[in-house]
C-alpha cells in the first residue's frame, strides 16, 4: 500500500491499465497515455477504434508492432515529459506515432525526434488511425475480435471517466488549452446519457464527469433539448447531472463532477448533491484568491464573493467536499498578494488542494507579463502554501476519526485494501486503508468502515 504523496500533480490521470492478451498473429499496438483524464479518454477512444479493427493492445513496447504516444502540453515540464516518453518509445520500439496536445505543434516534436512516423493533434482520431494502418496493417477476425460493450477502458473496471465536452471558451493568460483544443464543443445530452447508461450496465461503480469546463456544458448548443427515454432533457450541466444521478443512484454507483468553473449556476448543483444524486464533491479550479492576481490571470476577480458562495454551498449541503488547484509564483505576485492567498485559505478551509508553481508555456500570454518570480522564491512559496494546505487537511481528516463512512475498494494486496471515501477522487486525493479483515474484498466493492486514524492526506479504518 502507498500513501498519497504531498506533491502529487493534480493534472495527471491514473496510469493506463492494459490486461488483455493478443491472439496468435494479431497485430498489436502499444499506447502511452500522458497528461490529464481528458487525454486518457481520448486514448480510450483511439484504442476502441483500433480494437474494433482487429488490433490487440500491448502493455509494453516490446510486445507492440508500433506505439502511440498521447502527449500533454499543459506545462513546459509536461512537454519535457512527453518528449522523453517519445524518445523512450523510439529507443525501445522504433515505430512511434505521436498525438495529443503537444501534437498541435508538430515541428516542435519532429525537431527533437525526426524519426517519428506521424504527428497528429488532439482529437485527430482519423489521422491517428491512418498512421497506424500505414505502420501496421489491420488483420481483423470478425469471429474472434469482439469489442467490449463499453469499448476499451484504461482505468480499473469499477470506475470510468465520462467526457461531456471538449475545448474551452475562456482566455486565461497562463493556459494554451483553447489554442490546442479549440472552443467549447458539448456532446449531445442523449449521447452522454447513453454512454453513462452503458457504463453502469457494465458494472462501473463510479462515473467521473470531466471536460475542460464542466459548468459551461451546453452553452455552445444554447442549452437545446435532446430526446431521452420518451421525453426530452436540456443540454445543461444541472439537467445532465440530475438524469445521470438518477441512473447512478438506481445502480448503486457514485457520480463525481470534476473541473466545475464557479459560475453562479453551480449553486443549482449543490441541492442535487444534498439529495444524493451526485457525490457532495466540487472540484473547482480557483487558481488564486487575490483580485489583482486573478485579473492578471484574466480570471474573475471576486475572491470575497467566492467565500460567500462557499458558505452557501456548505449551508445547502453540509457534507460537501471542496477541491481546488492553485498557482503560486505567478508573474507579478507580491509577498502581500501571496499572504492574502494564505489568509484566504484559512477562511475557505478547502478540503482537497493541489498546487502548481507557475511555469512559462510557449504561446501563453502570461509569458509576456512583467515581474517574473525567481525559481527559489516560487519554491519557497509553494512550500509555505503546501504547509498551510496540509495543516487544514490534517485537521479536517482528524475530525473524521470515529465516523462511519462508505468507501469503494480500488486495490487489494497482501498488506491490505486501498480504498477511497466519497471525498476522494482517484489519484488526485487521499486514500483510506484497511489493514485487517480485508481478505474477502475485491476492487469495486463498496463497504462501510469506521475511521480509526488520520494523517495529512489519508485515513485508516476497519470494516463494520
Automatic annotation (TrEMBL):
GO cellular component: cytosol; ribosome
CDD domains per UniProt: Radical_SAM
One GO molecular-function entry: protein methylthiotransferase activity
GO biological processes: tRNA modification
Positions of the Radical SAM core domain: 154-395
Enzyme nomenclature, EC number: 2.8.4.4
Keywords: 4Fe-4S, Cytoplasm, Iron, Iron-sulfur, Metal-binding, Ribonucleoprotein, Ribosomal protein, S-adenosyl-L-methionine, Transferase
UniProt region (Disordered), positions on chain: 1-28
InterPro entries: Elp3/MiaA/NifB-like_rSAM, Methylthiotransferase, Methylthiotransferase_N, Methylthiotransferase_N_sf, NA-bd_OB-fold, Ribosomal_uS12_MeSTrfase_RimO, rSAM, rSAM_horseshoe
Gene3D superfamilies: Methylthiotransferase, N-terminal domain, Nucleic acid-binding proteins, tm_1862 like domain
Binding site for [4Fe-4S] cluster 2: 168, 172, 175
Catalytic activity: L-aspartate(89)-[ribosomal protein uS12]-hydrogen + (sulfur carrier)-SH + AH2 + 2 S-adenosyl-L-methionine = 3-methylsulfanyl-L-aspartate(89)-[ribosomal protein uS12]-hydrogen + (sulfur carrier)-H + 5'-deoxyadenosine + L-methionine + A + S-adenosyl-L-homocysteine + 2 H(+)
Domain annotation MTTase N-terminal: ranges: 27-137
EC category name: transferase
Cofactor(s) listed in the protein's UniProt record: [4Fe-4S] cluster
Function: Catalyzes the methylthiolation of an aspartic acid residue of ribosomal protein uS12.
Entry-linked HAMAP family: MTTase_RimO
Family: Belongs to the methylthiotransferase family. RimO subfamily.
Protein name as catalogued: Ribosomal protein uS12 methylthiotransferase RimO
Native organism: Rhodobacter xanthinilyticus
